[in-house]
Amino acid sequence: MSKGGGRSNIPARPREAIGSNFTQGSIWINSDRWLLAYPMRQPDNRSMIKKDAEQGSEQKNLRYVVYTNFLQDTTYAVILRKIGGIKETGGIGMGGQLKVLGAGDNVVDQYIHTGMMYPGGNALNFSVYAKQLGAHAAYMGVFGDDRAARHIQDVLTQLGIDISRCRSHPGENGYAQVNLVDGDRVFVGGNKGGVQHDHPLRLDGDDLQYMKQFELIHSSCYSDLGTAELAKIQSTGIPLSYDFSSDWDPRELEERCPYVFCSLLSCGHLDDSEVQETLRLAHRSGSPLALATMGSRGAVLYDGERFYRQEPHKVVPVDTLGAGDAFFTAFILHYLSGKKEQQDDGTLLPSSLAAAAQFAAQACLCDGAFGHGIAL
User: Maximum Cα–Cα distance for the chain, whole Å?
Assistant: First the structure.
């Protein structure tokens, strides 16, 4: 899903030093975020930049979060968050840490034009973004035994995401080949999930018992989970969210939505009236919440009573890959956190959409879905 385009109208505060080594100034993004921007005179000296960001965190009562990337080949950026914003232990500014599970697809996104590959996949991205947002996140899926699979596993372990219930099989891990055109993604090939296609995730009793510790499970249409597996997840009593992407038809919605608490659909190819009818169908088929993302046109949510519209936050994107996953993850975590505090849907749903748009815009500021690239 597209992260959107255009330039941001970000208010700038006067330049000031944040860390002992930082002299290039800071940009205030909003009440709980600062952006540090470094000229690329020493682009490889990332340890210095990280140390500087950590020192800045202490001085400005900010928590350092790894949102780092090169911007337009001239600048290295580090985003800091206030401790009062998205907390390490409290979800999105809420009390009590959410526990969530991504179950299903993982791939490496192979960037043909740069010779790099990055971890990705709808279910895996959900787990990573949830971790970035302060949740306790786990991932359950199927890996191959090649270099790509080892890299994804290493990254997830490094990020502190539980992969103890994953399977591995001899063969090629899933991959998707990507080119970028004007900052937006274009998929040009892939291996249809690799080993997952021949060895799909089939849930046993231990898996289902493991799932019961979570507050949400997220999967997708690329995860090779049939309705029998969705029924097993439903039997745990844990809500399931599901990304239909743009690969859906009315029959599939009618078959799968009865198992799904919140359905996510890519609807950039539909006009507004078609989007509303699609969301009505998803709700009518069984999903209490149905969310459509429409790229640069923003997103629409339907709860069975009214439609909520969210415009995108405009930024200059580095890479739009993973934006829809980032949007949905922030939305659903914000919503679940608010429900734990018994907030009313009339105010909680709009605020959750706003948080989602903000986080999706931040996800624009790195290569790949969340960085961690290696050479092909």
Answer: 60
Residue 212 class from Cβ within 10 Å (0-12 exposed, 13-18 middle, 19+ buried)?
exposed
Q: Do 37 and 138 reside in the same domain of the chain?
A: no
Domain assignment present for residue 92? The answer is no
**277 and 129 share one domain:** yes
For 175-208, the pLDDT digits (tens) are 999 886 775 667 889 999 999 999 999 999 999 9
Tell me, yes or no, whether 42 and 117 share the same domain.
Answer: no
Q: Which residues contact 73 (CB under 8 A, 6 or more apart)?
A: 40
Where does the pLDDT of residue 226 fall: very low under 50, low under 70, confident under 90, or very high at 90 and above? very high
pTM score: 0.77
Q: How many domains does the chain have?
A: 2
Quick one: 240 and 301 in the same domain?
yes
Q: H helices within 161-271, ranges in order?
A: 195-198, 205-211, 227-235, 250-256
Contact 149, 168 (CB under 8 A): yes
> Average pLDDT of the chain?
81
| Domain residue limits at 57 | 26-82
